[in-house]
């Protein structure tokens, strides 16, 4: 009888120890620079692996899933299990010791000269991306060959801050 009680008590503890933990996986953070411009970032094991920030442009930086090039065109897909968005960008070199991002896309793919940039179509594309990210649990970042997942975004007020993007800080 005592062995059965002990096994009943120990089994859940062992399950918790062997199960993957989201608590150690990393954390989301909303920050503002000295001009009050927002950026949402995910940091894992001391390295920034995802950043969505705005100022003169809406910039998305992410750790490319799979083997990344040093330069050139690249595509990632961001998904929430039900919907996904493909983002065309480019490879970039990792720039800092605490940065693991090597994919970048600016302004949701719109060129700086595009009259639609920050217009109604651009705002719809931005709302689609933010809505997808908001509903993701987990958020999946994938390439043709592999993917990784980030936990649900839990940084308070992140969407409202990023929604203000659209020519912020433009001179």
Please provide a brief summary of the model:
With 171 residues, this protein is of the alpha+beta class. It is 23% helix and 31% strand. The protein has a 9-stranded antiparallel beta sheet.
List the helices and strands and how they pair.
Elements: H1 2-18, E1 27-32, E2 38-44, E3 47-54, E4 58-62, E5 73-79, E6 84-91, E7 103-106, H2 120-135, E8 139-142, E9 147-150, H3 158-163
Notes on the protein architecture:
The chain has three helices and nine strands; from the N terminus they run H-E-E-E-E-E-E-E-H-E-E-H. It is globular, with a radius of gyration of 19 Å. It is of the alpha+beta class. The N terminus is likely disordered. The longest helix is centred in the N-terminal third of the chain and has 17 residues. Helix content is 23%, strand content 31%.
N-to-C terminal Cα separation, in Å? 76 Å
Give the ordered list of helices and strands: HEEEEEEEHEEH
What characteristic shape results from the CA principal axes? globular
| Average of per-residue pLDDT values | 84
Q: Look at the helices and sheets and give the structural class.
A: alpha+beta
Helix count, per DSSP?
Answer: 3
Keywords:
171 residues; 9-stranded antiparallel β-sheet; 3 helices; 9 strands
């Amino acid at each position: 009888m005592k062995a059965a009680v002990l096994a009943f008590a120990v089994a859940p503890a062992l399950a918790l120890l062997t199960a993957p933990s989201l608590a150690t996986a990393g954390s989301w953070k909303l920050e503002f620079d000295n001009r009050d411009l927002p950026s949402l970032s995910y940091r894992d094991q001391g390295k920034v692996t995802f950043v969505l920030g705005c100022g003169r442009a809406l910039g998305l930086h992410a750790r490319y899933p799979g083997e990344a090039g040093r330069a050139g065109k690249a595509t990632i897909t961001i998904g929430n299990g039900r919907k996904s968005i493909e983002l065309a960008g480019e490879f970039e070199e990792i720039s800092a010791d605490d940065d693991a991002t090597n994919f970048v896309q600016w302004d949701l793919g719109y060129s700086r000269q595009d009259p639609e940039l920050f217009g109604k179509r651009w705002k719809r594309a931005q709302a689609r991306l933010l809505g997808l990210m908001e509903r993701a649990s987990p958020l999946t970042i994938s390439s043709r060959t592999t993917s990784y997942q980030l936990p649900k975004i839990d940084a308070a007020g992140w969407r409202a801050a990023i929604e203000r993007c659209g020519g912020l800080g433009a001179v």
